[in-house]
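wait is this the right file?? whatever heres the structure
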């Protein structure tokens, strides 16, 4: 397939079943109906793509009713684009049979489907008949998360043996058609450590992790560390010894590696959050991601590659590399894994490739796809807009594929799994729980070298929110206060850029009081517009990314469905008019500019938003008047800041709407927040806007949505977090803190 280490891609395609519900990632990402994605994938420079030709989707009602329309079109397109498909036939699925992985006809059914695939596409060379058989068996038949929801060792082992036997039989059928067909056998591979009291369980987990590959290689027989466990659980010896007579060693062992793959087991369960406490054969323990508990850096994928190479001496690939994190950490994770794989290859391990997983992202893996929460993790593309949008992972991939070093400033610094603030308990050092200061924590990784900063113009609450969030994400950041005398003119801007040499600039001045701006426009608005436009011109000359903010008040409110970026502006007040003028001038001056329109911000420290004022009145048992005929999409500041940092790293430009969505009146929002915070909702007095002492006219409807980048959590989710933060702040004596 290649010479030297290669870059592959992967598409999240799970079709898992929970009771009678199916969770189909291809439908949720939109790829099921969007063939143009294949050209997007090819543009990344990948040489191969883990791609679904799924049994459940192609032949859900038997082979005689198989519909090949979808794989016909997609596989032909991939061939035309020069991307080698690695065909996946079952991906965390249970197949179309009633009994799923425990169905007595499972092996024969998958083998028959595999033969049909090979007959239809005889040129296909690389196959993964069953993705992650060990992991899937645990989720389906040991933990009971997925169909058939068993929860015992015998069912787990039978499900694993059925999948491995189906893999052997599938490859046998495929090789009858194409003798050169190759097996790329994937599974999640991690490592477990723990306290001395957990030694037996740690050893068990560290052997069990190899079981799918051991079976396929014919290594499980009397004398194997798990032989007694397997036969003692009720599995017939002949079902295991079958693999000795029918070995099917992988042509490539595919290691799927996640931050959750490395675990720490601890008998002192009371020292850990309740979500991590569990029982094992009556023994109470904590089972937690090592990164969240252990002070020393993780072993990482390099150790796992070395272990797999020493155990099997078969070609290796990292077949899934992905992390659910903010953008710079997604980049740091991929860069770290690519470096580890390259180093392992240089030291003699036959590592063939690294696979960037979930090119289109994935849904609800934070709950192991057991619920439809709508939780989305982006990949190389973000699919939450009208069309998939490239993230910063895409140019990183192109550079890796071409052998170029990628120099994005966001790569400098430590990923969260190596930062001191990651712990969910007292950090564990040499098996003991100790209190560590961030300065001395061995988890803190020094920067490779000082990165250029992100420059924030203004030193108010919004600027401080950006700085705090950037520091949490280990992004170097500098604040430049606006001059107290004179103007923030081009000379001032040039001086700031010379002094700080930033990689991007954000105008992070605080929101303006719209009514005050209506009364004193020259005093409040001229300086804002001048600063925004001056910064745009200066950044354009230096080819620097630049972010500035606008408002939903650029619209006249005559519509009754959310405004998108291409809708015409028609401001009703002076602030809206000023911002509309600023948008035009900034976008004309700087092609690297990103202008973000938002609804009213809430959640700033000491903020003066309507929601904050309403909560303050209600907390004193005073009435709060709220407009019942003004519909908005407010924006939660912490969500906005995170999204803006991601978008800057993605090099997004142009005009973009960012809000938490929804379309609610101020009265509805105030009532909802009163209920969430335990205040008296009856004190919210819904009034027509004409009865409220507004100085500036407001549009009756200014809800926002985006055709370009719908990247913020829902309004309901944002209000819940805001209300929780407000209640915590109130108990501490500072209500309104975010």
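ok assuming it is, sequence goes like this
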């Amino acid at each position: 397939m290649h010479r030297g280490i290669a870059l592959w891609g992967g598409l999240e395609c799970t079709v898992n079943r929970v009771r009678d519900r199916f969770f189909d990632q291809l439908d949720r990402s939109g790829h099921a109906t969007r063939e143009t994605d294949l050209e997007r994938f090819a543009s990344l420079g990948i040489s191969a793509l883990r791609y679904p030709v799924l049994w459940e989707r192609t032949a859900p009602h038997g082979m005689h009713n198989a519909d090949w329309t979808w794989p016909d079109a997609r596989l032909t397109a991939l061939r035309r684009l020069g991307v080698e498909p690695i065909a996946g036939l079952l991906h965390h699925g249970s197949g179309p049979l009633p009994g799923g992985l425990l169905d007595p006809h499972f092996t024969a059914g998958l083998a028959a489907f595999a033969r049909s695939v090979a007959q239809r596409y005889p040129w296909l060379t690389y196959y993964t008949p069953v993705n992650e058989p060990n992991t899937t068996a645990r989720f389906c038949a040991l933990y009971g998360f997925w169909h058939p929801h068993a929860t015992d060792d015998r069912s787990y082992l039978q499900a694993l043996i059925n999948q491995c036997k189906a893999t052997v039989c599938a490859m046998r059928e495929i090789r009858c058609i194409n003798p050169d067909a190759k097996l790329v056998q994937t599974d999640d591979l991690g490592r477990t450590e723990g306290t001395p009291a957990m030694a037996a369980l740690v050893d068990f987990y560290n052997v069990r992790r190899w079981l799918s590959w051991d079976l396929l290689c014919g290594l499980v027989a009397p004398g194997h560390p798990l032989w007694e466990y397997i036969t003692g659980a009720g599995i017939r010896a002949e079902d295991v010894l079958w693999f000795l007579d029918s070995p099917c060693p992988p042509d490539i062992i595919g290691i799927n590696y996640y931050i959750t793959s490395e675990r720490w087991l601890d008998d002192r369960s009371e020292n850990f959050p309740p979500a991590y406490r569990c029982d094992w054969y009556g023994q109470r323990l904590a089972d937690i991601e090592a990164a969240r508990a252990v002070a020393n850096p993780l072993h990482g994928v390099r150790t796992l590659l070395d272990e797999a190479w020493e155990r099997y001496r078969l070609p290796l690939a990292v077949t899934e590399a992905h992390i659910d994190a903010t953008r710079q950490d997604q980049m740091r994770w991929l860069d770290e894994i690519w470096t580890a794989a390259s180093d392992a290859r240089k030291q003699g391990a036959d590592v063939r490739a690294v696979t960037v997983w979930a090119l289109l992202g994935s849904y609800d893996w934070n709950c192991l796809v057991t619920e439809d929460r709508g939780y989305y993790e982006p990949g190389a593309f973000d699919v939450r807009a009208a069309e998939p949008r490239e993230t910063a992972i895409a140019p990183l991939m192109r550079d890796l594929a071409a052998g170029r070093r990628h120099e994005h400033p966001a790569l400098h610094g430590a990923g969260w799994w190596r930062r001191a603030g990651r712990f969910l308990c007292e950090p564990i050092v040499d098996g003991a729980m100790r209190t560590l200061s961030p300065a001395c924590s061995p988890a803190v990784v020094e920067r490779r070298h000082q990165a250029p900063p992100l420059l924030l113009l203004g030193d108010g609450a919004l600027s401080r929110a950006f700085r705090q969030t950037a520091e949490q994400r280990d992004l170097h950041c500098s604040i430049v206060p606006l001059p107290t005398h004179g103007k923030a003119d081009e000379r001032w801007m040039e001086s700031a850029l010379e002094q700080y040499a930033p990689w991007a600039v954000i105008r992070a001045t605080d929101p303006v009081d719209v009514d005050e701006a209506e009364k004193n426009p020259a005093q409040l608005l001229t300086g804002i517009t001048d600063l925004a436009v001056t910064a745009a011109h200066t950044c354009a000359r230096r080819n620097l990314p630049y972010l500035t903010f606008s408002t939903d008040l650029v619209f006249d409110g005559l519509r009754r469905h959310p405004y998108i970026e291409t809708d015409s502006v028609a401001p009703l007040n002076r602030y809206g008019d000023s911002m509309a003028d600023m948008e035009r001038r900034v976008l004309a001056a700087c092609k690297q500019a990103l202008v973000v329109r938002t609804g009213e911000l809430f959640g700033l420290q000491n903020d003066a938003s309507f929601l904050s004022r309403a909560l303050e009145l209600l907390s004193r048992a005073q009435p709060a008047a709220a407009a019942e005929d003004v519909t908005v999409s407010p924006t939660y500041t912490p969500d906005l800041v995170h999204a803006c940092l991601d978008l800057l790293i993605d090099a997004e430009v142009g005009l973009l709407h960012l809000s938490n969505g929804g379309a609610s009146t101020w009265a509805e929002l105030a009532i909802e927040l009163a209920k969430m915070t335990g205040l008296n909702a009856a004190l919210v007095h819904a009034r027509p806007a004409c009865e409220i002492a507004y100085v500036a006219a407001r549009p009756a409807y200014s809800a926002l949505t985006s055709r370009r980048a719908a990247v913020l959590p829902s309004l309901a989710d944002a209000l819940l977090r805001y209300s929780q933060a407000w209640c915590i702040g109130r108990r501490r004596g500072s209500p309104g803190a975010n």
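The mean pLDDT is 93. so i think its the right one actually
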